[in-house]
Amino acid sequence: MEPDRYSRIAITLHWLIAAALAFQIGLGWRMGNLTAATGQFTAFQLHKSIGITILLLSLIRVAVRWWKPRPAAEPDSPWAKRAAGLVHFGLYAFMIGGPITGWLLVSTSRIQVPTLLFNTIPWPHIPGLHGALRGPVHEFSEAAHSALAWIGIALFVLHVAGALRHQWLLRQPLIERMLPAGPERLSPGGGALAYVAALALVGGAFLLPGTIGSTRGNVPPPAPAAAETPAGETAGDDAAEANGAIETAPAEAADNAVTAGDNASVAAAPAEEAKAEAPRWAVQPGGRLGFTASFTGTPIEGRFARWDADIRFDADALDKSDIRVRIDMASADTEDSSRDETLRGDAFFDTGAHAAATFRATRVTSAGPGRYRAQGSLTIKDVKRPMTVDFTLAIKGDRADVAGKGTITRGDFGIGTGEWEATDRIAGPVAVDFRFSAIRKD
């Protein structure tokens, strides 16, 4: 005999999954507006934890659906029954397929970030997805994961619309079967109240992720006030917009003034007195500051989207040259969002605590016609080490074209700690390259 109501375990799973899905969609929506300094990494880890939880609950729900008897379908037209069946099938595909495609995304990332469910329970990657499989599977899962999110939202709307149709147009006691307790038939007011309560549960879960930006654990909060722009500079300066304007800020806000993915500036300490005898050169838009690392023998290329340089250079008086470069570490871009977020984390650049890296060269020597060597120091994560770069320089009138390269050892700066400290997967040496044009200012 078919029961009048769903079993308690089915009801509990139904509302738990509905709330978790709403939270997950809201979190995914919210993550697009978060930055490294406002909890983006924490949000991604929570998103993975909730996703695996939804997958496990959904598999249990499928098992309960076959194990426990459920109420008979309400009388309806053939087309409506077919539509309802398709919507229910689609919802199960969304509930299971969404987490699986997300799991595939994490498992095929070039940098394998361990997954700890709620920072406690280790969760493995899907095995066998390396080599030639990695790229195609990653692209497919990325597209499928995004598509399933929108399909799931549409199916949820259709599911609610169908339930409302049964409840009020057909006058069938549908929601009563899925309530934890209650009469066999609610009054119109009781039915409306039950739907409002159910939608409030789901809607509240959707809105809850909006608090993540202000409760992000150990990630330092952003500076309480915007840094002032130095006199003589404007926010619309072309070079600043191209390489990321670098503004001064109070010392106590310096570490927190930069956020990834926006136009915030790199906080810089007060500059030492420049060597006024050498002319100043202004970096022009379109330059590149890049790096190449080796991961399991495969070169991984990236660049910094925001950087700026204060250059004093005189080819006829090299001893008066002074080069200062400031880099927004959160702007690292390797064309892989998961990998970029990992680079901003504590194990690598730790951009929440160390927003900017700096290079200072006070000794420039000639290495032949049009070739030079700059010797100085690089500071990353408050660690200062000697660094030498070789570059070529072609000056035509007031314009100079520069290209060069150097090499650092990531371990010297604490880039890649914990499980990433060994060099069997990520090699120790990292190549740095740059090219840009500059205009003589004085």
TrEMBL record:
Q: Name one GO molecular function term.
A: heme binding
- In this chain the Lipid/polyisoprenoid-binding YceI-like domain maps to 280-439
Q: Where is the composition biased (Low complexity)?
A: 225-234
Annotated TM spans: 12-32, 44-64, 85-106, 147-165, 186-208
Q: Name the UniProt key words of this record, in alphabetical order.
A: Cell membrane, Electron transport, Heme, Iron, Membrane, Metal-binding, Transmembrane, Transmembrane helix, Transport
Q: Where in the cell is it found?
A: Cell membrane
Q: Which GO terms describe its cellular component?
A: plasma membrane
Q: How is this protein situated with respect to the membrane?
A: Multi-pass membrane protein
Q: Please give the residue ranges the record annotates as the region Disordered.
A: 217-237
The biological process GO terms on file are: respiratory electron transport chain
Cofactor requirements of the protein: heme b
Q: Specify the domain of life of the species encoding this protein.
A: Bacteria
The entry's family comment says:
Belongs to the cytochrome b561 family.
The protein's name in its UniProt record: Lipid/polyisoprenoid-binding YceI-like domain-containing protein
Q: Which organism is it from?
A: Edaphosphingomonas haloaromaticamans
**Classification lineage:** Bacteria, Pseudomonadati, Pseudomonadota, Alphaproteobacteria, Sphingomonadales
